[in-house]
Amino acid sequence: MKLSNKWYDALKWIALVCFPAVETLWYTLAKIWNLPYAGEITATIAAVGLFIGALIGVSTIQYNKGLKDDKE
Predict the structure, then answer these.
(1) Contact 59, 33 (CB under 8 A)
(2) How many domains does the chain have?
(3) Residue 70 has pLDDT above 80, yes or no
(4) How many CB atoms lie within 10 A of CB 56?
(5) In the chain, which residue ranges form alpha helices assigned H by DSSP?
(6) Which domain holds residue 33?
(7) pLDDT of residue 42
(8) Contacts of 42 (CB under 8 A, 6+ apart)
(9) What is the distance between the alpha carbons of residues 15 and 18, in angstroms, rounded to a whole number?
(10) Cβ atoms of 35 and 65 closer than 8 Å
């Protein structure tokens, strides 16, 4: 699976910046305001972020493999 540069950049920003920020915000506010399912929602956000990171990793490997094949 190869991602376009636009999708790659967007997913990378979401995985590296957005998801960790939302995860921390939710957990902090849930603890302050006694909101339900603080741990469960935080773990879900982390799992989705990890999945997106894995997609980015697969795309990067395939892109680099394509560059290597072009050089040979």
Answers:
(1) no
(2) 1
(3) no
(4) 19
(5) 5-13, 19-33, 38-71
(6) 5-71
(7) 97
(8) 23, 26, 27, 30
(9) 6
(10) no
What amino acid is encoded at 14 in this protein? Answer: I
Write the DSSP symbol of residue 14: I
Distances (CA, A) of 37 to 25, 31, 45, 50, 51: 14, 10, 12, 20, 21
Work out the angle at residue 3's Cα, subtended by the Cα atoms of residues 55 and 16, and round it to the nearest 5 degrees. Answer: 50
pTM of full prediction above 0.85: no
C-alpha span between 2 and 55 (Å, rounded): 9
Condensed to tens digits (0 to 9), the pLDDT of residues 26-61 reads 999 999 999 999 999 999 999 999 999 998 998 888
